[in-house]
Each structure stands twice: as structure tokens, then as C-alpha cells.
Amino acid sequence: MLATLVTCQGSTPREPGARMVITPTECFDTLGGGTFEWQTLEAARSFLSTGKPGFHLETFSLGGRSGQCCGGYVNVLLEVFPGSRVNVAVFGAGHVGGEIVSLCAPLPWQLYWFDSRLDVFTERCRHQPRLEYGTLDDAKTSVATLPPDTHTLVMTHDHDEDYALVAALILRDDIASIGLIGSESKWASFAGRLKRDGYSENRINRVRSPIGRIQNAKLQDKTPYAIALTAVSELLWLADMPPNQESRGLDPHMARTLFAKSPTTSS
Q1: In 41, 86, 125, 193, which residue has its Cα 20 to 30 A from 4's Cα atom?
Q2: Which residue ranges run through the membrane (predicted)?
């Protein structure tokens, strides 16, 4: 996040144009220090935790809200930059999962890779950029860590793990897409089980299975690399769709108020 001091009135620690870069754990440069800066950091990290890009305007009365003796007023524009526009989570580090992660490496995507067997991650993946990997201990916990608008692929070595992941994913309305590897019979079994467990038809229908199907044609080549190619091709189309966001950018009225020229007063 970039925090920019855009307007000042009265006595303030710094002047308009001062900037500070804020991450979830660090900050670079300063807007002047004190309680006001701590409140800016707190607000920034609260917005960062949502994982959604956008603009936010924070107003500080230094003598009131911030309790500082300088007593001026400042407006700080907080700009959340999303980093990689596309997030992809791969559950399963088997042959197909490994090929998918390798194929995604040149793409500007942020990857999250999970498997309940930590020893399956190779030395190569430890040096791949924009890749985070970790142990899949509990489906609900791992799914809860994903940022909004993540495209997910479920392909673990265990069908019970697959089911637990699908059941957790369909409950998150902000997941961009849910793909499950396997045959039509596997999905029919899963869909029936989900229905018996009380999940609604709308939630069940969010799952795409089998993955990588092009125009409903069946792929004859079932090698891991071929399956991965179709899965990544499918993701390219899905990722090209804009995320479902409630709003974009700074509210126009707020922007007009903020950047309108202040009237001059005569002494």
C-alpha cells in the first residue's frame, strides 16, 4: 500500500506529497511519526488484510483523533496495490499438480500450492518466483487462508481430502473458480454426497469437473503434461474475466471534495 499525505491544514508533521510504503509487516519512509502515523499503519493493514485493491481516504484531526499537540488536520490517501492480478491455488503436489505449477511459472500469477505430504515439494519449486507452498493439515484452515478471487484446483492423492476441500471451497462466495480433477463418475459421486450432506444446488454447481475440458470434448491423451496443459489453458480464459468487485476506485464525490481548490480568505 502507498500512503500519501494529500492535504494539510494548520501545524502538521510533514507537508503534502510525503509518502510511505506499507506492507503487512513493514513500512518504508514516514508521514511524520507519532500516533497519527500509527493510526495510518493500522488503517492501511486493515485494508490490506481484505486482499482487495482500491483507494481509501483517511482524515486525521491531529489534536482530536490522534491526540497530538500540533493540532492540525491532514488527509491521507491509501492506495492498495494488488500485486499479481491473478491468484491460483493448487491442492495436490502429484504429477499433474507439479506440471501445472511448472507451466504457470512464466505467467504473472501468484501461486499457492498445498499437499498433506510436505516431502513431495521438490528443490526446484523452492526457487520458483510467485510461489508459496505449504502443508495441507486441514481443508477448512487452508481454504480460509486464500485471498479473495482465487482460482482453485483440487487434485490431491486422496479422495476424502478432495471432498473436504471442495466442501470448504463452495462455502466461500469470494472464490473465483473451483476445479476438481477426475472422471465424470467421480464428480457424480461427489455431487451426490454433497447433496446428501445438505449443500445447496447453487453451491454444488460452482464446481467445474472434469477440469480442462475444451468445448465438452474428451481428452484422449491422459498424460500429466497434457492434462496440465488443458487445465492451465482453461485458467487463462477464467483469469481473463474481471473479478467481481462491488466498487472500483475512489468515490467521485470524495475525489471532487478532496481535490477541489480551497477558497482563499482575506485577513
Answers
A1: 86
A2: none
How many angstroms separate the CA atoms of 154 and 163, rounded? 9
The C-alpha cell 481548490 sits at 261
Contact 129, 101 (CB under 8 A): no
Angle made by CA atoms 3, 245, 174, in degrees to the nearest 5? 110
Task: Encode pLDDT of 99-153 as tens digits.
Answer: 999 999 999 899 999 998 877 777 666 678 788 888 888 999 999 999 999 999 9
> Domain map of the chain by residue range?
2-82, 86-239
What lies within 8 Å, CB to CB, of 166 at 6+ separation is 154, 178, 180, 190, 194, 207
Mean pLDDT of 84-107: 92
CA-CA distance, 233 to 236, in Å (whole number)?
5
- The sheet carrying 86-91 orders its strands as 131-135, 109-115, 86-91, 150-154, 177-180, 207-208
Interval 3-13: pLDDT, tens: 999 888 877 77
pLDDT at 247 over 50: no
Instruction: Give the integer Cα–Cα distance in Å for 155 and 98.
Output: 11
Answer whether 101's CB lies under 8 Å from 131's CB.
Answer: yes
